[in-house]
UniProtKB/TrEMBL annotation:
<feature type="transmembrane region" description="Helical">
    <location>
        <begin position="159"/>
        <end position="187"/>
    </location>
</feature>
<dbReference type="Pfam" id="PF09955">
    <property type="entry name" value="DUF2189"/>
</dbReference>
<feature type="transmembrane region" description="Helical">
    <location>
        <begin position="115"/>
        <end position="138"/>
    </location>
</feature>
<keyword id="KW-0472">Membrane</keyword>
<keyword id="KW-0812">Transmembrane</keyword>
<feature type="transmembrane region" description="Helical">
    <location>
        <begin position="211"/>
        <end position="241"/>
    </location>
</feature>
<feature type="transmembrane region" description="Helical">
    <location>
        <begin position="62"/>
        <end position="86"/>
    </location>
</feature>
<feature type="transmembrane region" description="Helical">
    <location>
        <begin position="38"/>
        <end position="55"/>
    </location>
</feature>
<keyword id="KW-1133">Transmembrane helix</keyword>
<protein>
    <submittedName>
        <fullName>DUF2189 domain-containing protein</fullName>
    </submittedName>
</protein>
<dbReference type="InterPro" id="IPR018692">
    <property type="entry name" value="DUF2189"/>
</dbReference>
Length: 265
């Protein structure tokens, strides 16, 4: 049931996007998380649990696990769909609970399903590419994290690790550019996927510096979550999701709204 609460400060204010904006988005995301923590922490806990299961299943196959965790960053935006809704409701002075988030998922919005499948395919492609690179290039089996660190990351001669990073970046960059605005917009507005993706690319073209910094900041936060045995993801997941909503509002002030809209076909 949706409850009423004081609206977020200046929800309709148009704020110029600059290099400080990503930090401001994180601050606003933290405000949203503190104001309504349950949906976000439940998302974070479930994703952390999935990460633990993945680590257990691939505990002797780090060549696969390395790609799986980095590929997670590709599909993460669609997993946060419900938290964009939570932030939107707070901006309108309403508190969305888990029931509202589940209702959004049960709506089975075809646009979000299609976008999620595309992200899933991209993530799967990177997992397979990463696994192939590590297993075929490395001269020794990479079964444990220390194997990856010793024989891939810390080797003196440049090669596998640099290519692994380069290929991951080449895949992640267009995915980020396509989704940084698109998924919050699909939650917020009744627009087709093509229009949302176009708006996302336009936002990146108009603000390349801030959005590169935003991507780096997201990577740093997820890295912090991973090195805490995934426990940090319980907070990092909702924090980044809520912050991403505020990024969308600043990047697309002419289209963002605080009122629910029916999904487009």
């Amino acid at each position: 049931m949706t409850q009423t609460l004081p609206p977020a400060p200046s929800p309709n204010a148009v704020v110029p996007v600059d290099m400080i904006s990503p930090v401001r988005w994180i601050e606003k995301g933290w405000d949203d998380l503190r104001a309504n923590p349950v949906p976000g922490l439940v998302h974070g806990a479930l994703i952390t649990l999935f990460g633990w299961l993945l680590m257990w299943a691939a505990r002797e196959k780090f060549w696969l696990l390395a790609g799986a965790f980095s590929g997670f960053l590709i599909v993460a935006p669609v997993l946060a769909t419900g938290l964009y809704h939570v932030s939107r409701e707070r901006a309108a002075g309403r508190m969305a609970g888990l029931g509202d988030v589940l209702a959004l998922w049960r709506s089975f919005d075809g646009r979000l399903v299609r976008f999620g499948l595309l992200l899933g395919l991209a993530g799967t492609g990177w997992v397979l590419t990463s696994a192939g690179l590590i297993t075929l290039w490395s001269e020794v089996p990479i079964n444990k994290p220390m194997d990856f660190l010793k024989h891939v990351v810390l080797v003196r001669e440049p090669g596998l690790f640099e290519v692994w990073l380069l290929m991951g970046s080449l895949l992640a960059a267009p995915v980020f550019a396509s989704s940084v605005v698109a998924i919050p917009m699909l939650v917020d507005k009744s627009v087709p996927v093509s229009m949302a993706v176009t708006a996302s690319w336009r936002a990146v073209a108009d603000h390349p510096g801030p959005l590169v910094w935003w991507a780096v900041l997201i990577g740093m936060l997820f890295g912090m979550g991973l090195i805490t045995a995934l426990l940090g993801l319980i907070v990092v997941i909702p924090l980044v999701a809520h912050a991403s909503w505020h990024a969308y509002r600043d990047l697309c002030p002419e289209t963002s709204t605080s009122s629910p809209t029916a999904p487009a076909a």
